[in-house]
Amino acid sequence: MAWTWRFEKSDGSAVEPAVQAEEFSTQGDAESWIGEEWKGLLDEGVDQVTLLEDGSTVYGPMSLHADEEAEG
């Protein structure tokens, strides 16, 4: 199994950030990576991410703006 992230703008269009994620062997590894990298991705114009397992959506889109929306 390969776990990957799809990076998107808020309208669902694809974004290719400079920071590229590799394929992960576990969901936990993929989630740990996004937990470490989300701020940099947000700075590069990524608004939301979707987790994929072998190309199929596991969950998402998940906003990277969640904290800002919760405060507002």
Automatic annotation (TrEMBL):
Region annotated Disordered, chain positions: 1-29
Domain of life where this protein originates: Bacteria
Compositional bias per record (Basic and acidic residues), positions renumbered to this chain: 1-11
Name of the featured protein: Uncharacterized protein
Organism from which the protein derives: Streptomyces boncukensis
